[in-house]
Structures are given as C-alpha cells and as structure tokens.
Automatic annotation (TrEMBL):
One of its GO terms (molecular function) is metal ion binding. It comes from the Bacteria. The keyword DNA-binding does not apply. It comes from Limnovirga soli. InterPro entries: L-rhamnose_isomerase, Xyl_isomerase-like_sf. This is Sugar isomerase.
Amino acid sequence: MQLDKSAIEAHNEYLIKDHERRFNYIAAEVQDVEALLQKLIDFQVAIPSWALGTGGTRFGRFPGGGEPRNLEEKIEDIGLLHALNNSSGAISLHIPWDIPENATHIKALAAQHGLQFDAMNSNTFQDQPGQAFSYKYGSMQHVNKAVRQQAIDHNIEVIKYGLDLGSTSLTVWLSDGSCFPGQLNFRNAFQNTLESLQQVYSALPDDWKMFVEYKAFEPNFYSTTVGDWGQSLLYASKLGSKAYTLVDLGHHLPNANIEQIVALLLMEGKLGGFHFNDSKYGDDDLTVGSIKPYQLFLIFNELVEGMDARGMKHATDLGWMIDASHNVKDPLEDLLQSVEAIMITYAQALLVDRKKLAEAQLNNDVVTAQEILQQAFRTDVRALVAAARLRSGGALNPLAFYRQHDIRAGLINRRGSKSMATGL
Ligand code: LRH
Ligand code: MN
C-alpha cells in the first residue's frame, strides 16, 4: 500500500497554521535552527522486520489483524511508516524469519519505498526444522564443536543475504548462557564463543561491521555468555577494528547507568549502535520513551557530546535501530510513537548548551549543570521535529493521519483479521 502524496498534503494543509505558530515560537529560541532541522532530516531509524506483527509472551498473544504475511508486505508497512515520518528509511532483517527469496526483487521493492537495508540479524537462539544440532545448551559457547560450526555457518550465510541486499553490518545476539550454577565452565564458554565469533569475523567483507549485542538475562537465568557491556567490549576488542558493541536499552540490570556505558564505549571507539525500546523491569521491549524518557535524553546527551568530540557523523556513524515488541498496541502506531520519541529526544540533546555545561562541570557547579540539561529536556521540540518532517515530504502528525485514514482497517481488509507476521 503506497500512500497517496496528495492525501499527506491535504493533511498538512489542515494542520499548517497551528504548526507554523508553534514552529515560529520555538525557532526563535534556537541558535541555527536550519542546521538543527537538517540534522533531524538526515537522521534515519531502522525498523526491525520482526516487529510488524503483534508480539506476545509465554502467557499469550493477541493478534490485531492485517499483519504482513511475507517480506514484501513487511517492506510495504515500513514504507508506509517512512512515507508518514520520513525518519524510518531502513529495515533490519532477521534470518531465517525474513529470508529474501529473491534478493534483487526485494532490494528493488525496498528502493521503491525509499528504504535501505540496515544490520542483518542472525538467529542461533531457536532450532529450525531439520536442523542437525540443537541450540538447547547454546550455540557458539557449546561444548560440541559441531554445534559451534553450525552457528558459525549460519552467521556466514546471513552475511551473504546481507551482501545481496546492500547491508553492511551483522548483529550477533547470542542467548547462550546457563540456568544453574555448575552447568557451565565460564572460561571455556567465553573461549568457544570468541573462537566462533573470530571465524564469523574473518568472513566479514572489508566495509562491514559486526555488532556484538549483550544482554543480562533471558532466556538463560543464571549466566549469559555475552552478559554485559564489559564482556561485549572484551569480545569486540579481541575480534578487531570491525567489531563493536551494540546497546539494547532493555538488556541491562535494574538501575544500570546506561548513559555512562554509552559515554565510555564511544570514548573507546567501540560503540556500534543501538536497539531502542523502553522497559520498567526486564527486557520488556516497550515503546521508546514511554517509561524512562529522561534516561533516553541523558543517553542522547552523551551521544551528541561523544560523537562531536570524535567528529563523528550523527546520522551514519552509528547503527540506529528499534527493537520492540507490541503486545497491546497496533504495531505500526507503536513504531510511529517510538520513532517520534527518538527524534524528539535527539532534538532536545542538540539544544544542550555544551559550552555552559562544560564550564559548570569545571566549576563543580552541580546546580547549573542540572539546570542546563533540564532546560533542554523541558523544551517542547515537537514543532521542530514536525518541521523537519514537513520539509522532507512527511505528514505533520503521522499518528493522526494513520488513524484518520483507517489504515489498519485497510490492511485487515486486504490481509484478513487472522494474518500473522513472522517474528517474536
Ligand atoms: C534479544 C533481542 C535481539 C534480537 C531479538 C529479537 O532480546 O534484543 O536483538 O535478535 O531481541
Ligand atoms: Mn535487541
């Protein structure tokens, strides 16, 4: 379903007066508003191919209907998001959930919707039908060399799919670990995993990156073999210059200071990218900015400061991806809200007066330092984000457009109320 540009124009015409009043107010407050708008226009967030259907838990899943039945329809849905907010210009595939049977056709279809292929994701946390060896006791950590080789071969196959689609990065998340003390020799598990990752690393094309995603727990509940940022950094440092850590916001123990982790990984030049979501307890995969918006702001504050300190290009030098699951919301509405939260938070972080903040830090002026951060966080930047969208051809209010045009009803009409998407 390709959105009709004139429908978006009609929507914007209806909202333009209000928008311009708000925009003119905030634009007067911002130094170099043009530069800020350009940064927002350039900033693209990759949408996960596994989060276009209704997610669930072991207790249940309540599909909402009209879910994409194949990769083509998933690309259509992400194309729809991108047409509305012009900030979702990439798709991150998960293999084997979304194998591109005909890569040329899939690449052309994605290009038609203005989409590129971001990081490819391998899957050695589930057993596929006909698979020779089970991953029940892990994949790259496994005591059995044949199981490790199977996981290595799968990751190399995923790189091949990515090459055909124009992707230039591989995310490796390993569910490997243990559920009980004594079950695992931690050093052997680390060494097996490192040797396995080294074999995948040596198959990486020169211009590719490998993202090593860490996670504190689940599905293993005693130890995880890539369990925190330190372990991921250890692997990425031992692997080489093309290996980086990947920060999934939901993969930390309670009260972890994620913004400090981000600052240090950036300082080391080993931060590869993000899986954005939000959580209150565990890996809840909730809408970005829905539970801890100030933490997200503090993370973007460190990102802008750290990337500028290294002369990095905000839009392209890190992997910006969402990784969420939609148990009670329409997946597309949830993703629109998540992208909006990321754009708002990035804009607020760009408003931080870095010079004054550095002065306050040098003077140990704690109160002023906090005031400078909260001044930016308490600034309503939504009209700036909307202006960037308007300039790049998007809708002033994507969510309102989606509802007013009953897009979900249209999808259910075409795909049925029982269609189920692959993924979590
Ligand atoms: C693991 C994870 C990983 C994906 C999976 C869908 O929790 O965050 O990034 O492979 O979710
Ligand atoms: Mn993730």
